[in-house]
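Hi,

I'm pasting everything inline rather than attaching a file, because the server keeps stripping attachments. The sequence lines come first, and each chain or strand is labelled.
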Amino acid sequence: MPTVTIDNQVYEFENGDVLLQFCSDIGIEVPHFCYHPAMSAPANCRQCLVKIGTPARNRATGEPEMNEDGTPVINFMPKLQPSCAIAITDGMVVHTQRSDDIVEEGQVDNLELLLINHPLDCPICDQAGQCPLQNQAYKFGPEGSRFEFQKVHKPKRIQLGPHVVLDAERCINCTRCTRFTSEITETHQLSIHNRGDKNYPITAPGVEFDDPYSMNVCDLCPVGALTEDYFRFRARVWEMSKTPGISTYGSKGINVDYWVKDNEVLRITPRQNLDVNEYWMPDAARLIYTTFNEDRPAGPEMLFRDGGRGPADWRQAYDAAAFLLKGVEGSETFLLGSALATVEDNYLLMQLAEHLGAPAPQYLSHVEPGSGDDWLITDDRAPNAQGCERLGMQELDADLLKSRLASGELKVLYILQDDPVGMGVLSEADLDGVQVILHHTHTTNETLPFANVALPIAMAVETIGTYVNADGRAQRLRPAKATRHMHRPQMMEMGLSRLDRQGTPFDRWHDESNKIDCQPGWAAIPEIAERLGRKMRWDGPASIMDELAQTDAFAGATHKAMGFTGVPLEDVGEAV
Amino acid sequence: MEVPKINDGTSKAGDWRNYKRVLLPPVRDLHKLEVYEQNGGYSALRAVLNENKFDPKGLGEHVKQSGLRGRGGAAFNTGLKWSFMPPVDPDVPRFLCCNGDESEPGTFKDRQLFEYNPHLVIEGMVLANYAISAKACYIYIRGEYASWIDHFQKAVDEAYAKGYIGENILGSGFSTDIVVHKGAGAYICGEETSLMESLEGKRGYPRVKPPFPAQKGIWARPTTINNVETLACVPLIVNKGADWFAATGAEKHPGPVLYGISGHVNKPGVYEFPTGMLITDLIDEVCGGMRGGKKLKALVPGGSSTPVLTAEQCIGTTMDADSLREAGSMLGTAGMLVMDEDTNMVSFLRRITHFYHHESCGQCTPCREGTGWLEKLVTRIDEGEGNFRDLDLLLDLCDQIEGRTICALADAAAWPVRWTIRRFRPEFEAKCKPSTFAGADLGDGASTEPAPVS
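And the predicted assembly:
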């Protein structure tokens, strides 16, 4: 293995390693702004300067030259070099700011220059708290500034496109955003305008920054120059807690972070997973944050014996559901699974169907052909169709269901977290005379008016569970916000998955105000099953997956193994 | 042992008073192809292509022997530069690039070649293409030279029509093209790699080196880039021989050179002489002395980025790379700015810093932010609002900017500041506000009492 000496310590490296990335990987922090591992390195911020030397070689013989004590002679380059643009070579000697005063001063000098025209409006800047410029200025920057002039003024509050707002004065011209549109999405919508200290990124005149991935530039921006329109001034980053999760947008299984304050999801950002979405996510997957907060049900509802509809308590609702199921033959019952629900919930639904002697549950496909791209936006709008398939669930045969409903063959319809009426699969006429038990997530669910019993179910940000993406990768959901009824596994997971364990001092997560009165499927289905004489003995979703992980379709996909990046599942034709 | 001084006060230009001009010979209508041909034009090309005077490698070797050094500022050996091109691979096109973006304040020599002797440049380009086996030569001319671009394009069209460029040149089987490209008014596009970016239709940002142009130049193909005047020397070397060239002017930096002299002299203009001319000869004899009989105060020898010389430093110094290095400056493009005793050096520096602030491309932090800061500080001093500490801050900033960027523009911005302050500091101090601190040096060697608090 070739070796490199960094700050007097020898490391092994692989040919082709870039110095800055290598330093980051081994835990040496070299400050930088423009470098991003997914894009080309323009070496323009000049912050990652280090001192570099290579072993001297005799010009005539090509032999390495040695000092008297047998150590190789090192030729240091006269100028400091940007570590982001340096491929490591064998025997290279590197001095970072940790061991070399000149490098340290060079980095201080550079930060002083970076800050002279930066507005330093951190107190009103959305980036404050998660700002590489702020962090690195505190860590590596000068004590103060010697700049005594008016700063350069540039346009502010420019609406670049529907989702991105530019504050050009904050920009440090790292060109990450322009490289993103030219190298990653290849829409070439952003470019640097003007020259020298007057330059800033912007679209060409008359061009709107409507790239479907536009908000990634807000994550890339190392300052507060590019911000998400929907999130501007909503919350300071330190007021929110951040929970790793999986996006419910499409079947790609995009890894995200859910940012929550007062039990409201305020923001969704991509989480790095090189096997799934790398560093990116589409704008649409961010904008669904409102679905976790708005139009959520206020608790279970049911049709009372006097024909009136109204709120019920959970025990009443479970009793009513069990009563409905008990009153008919298994063959007169149909259970509809859901590509929106987790593997665990669907598995329990199948167990329930088995117990009732009902036909195998099927799931409703959310595929909208042609609506996806070749990248992170998929035709399938639901996150877990693959999980249903792997459980052996088949796609719903809507015509068959309709005819069975029409013939009066089916008396009870049990719907898990879906909206067949809203999707146009079933109509009001179809449901005439049929008893409906519905697990719904929103009051806008159009099947809700026909439900005899409506049991609000927890969404992806509230429950624990597993989604399997279109590529067969099992990934884990963690509760990002509290619901009114917290079960022990949720409490445990909240404690484990919220880095601050208990929300932040600015976060009233324990207040009732925004807590949704809903139950996770893995809590509600066993309650009903129990009333029907079937004990479902699981210690929560993790133990369900422990059991499923023994099968071929989910081999190895325990919650522990899935961790933060998921488990790729073996391709099995038909499952379980 | 005493090191012999390079600048011993003797001219290295030999019998320059009887020098016969070769780059810009005194021939009427030389820009016309038939006139150029009547005066021996394209004979070097014929000698190489038809009479097999040189094979490509031999031509490069010959140019190397002549000692021709680049006329664009860095004064690098041209033949050696050509030899950096990788071995010919028939599948990989190679290019020559001719840098005609001369935008440095004080430099206006290439314009004369475009106007009066364009075919010499074209012949040089074709020869260089032959030497490095290039498929085409792109000549990048600054956009402000609009009429010279048209003029040069006409010459290229004529040469195409006559078969000096294009397919199967002079029946030799060698084919090459020349493309004239118009710049859009950015100084930075004279930097070789940003010139290439600009040629490719991108924003004129210098590239990170390595890879160097010889490995990855235009469209990531091996590319050599030379200045207009450098290429114009090539036919002369072929015609008159490397020995003639090497014997002209200063030994280590030979050949004819175009001196672009501007400023406070009686007859400013572009003058062709051998290298190694005494600065005093150029001012006093060639340019007819200082305007109004005033005294020389300062001189910028090679375009605005080269360090300014004081009048004392000019005495005995000749115009070649080694001599000027000893004097404390560089030859650059040999665009000389002559300043007389009435010149205000602070205002001079203010204008220079304004230029570099205006022309910084904004890619690298130190240059983008630093050039603006330099200008603001120098402007403040020039307006009488500066402090003594500003001078030290300026020098400090030069350290912060110099050598920390991708290209040399930051260096070019820092050098004039550093050397003008170092060499004319009393003048700067005189413009600063008097210090109110006890013990402050006011430049008179004495200290003052603190000013009374009012």
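The first strand of chain A starts at residue 3 and ends at 6.

If the labels don't parse on your end, tell me and I'll reformat.
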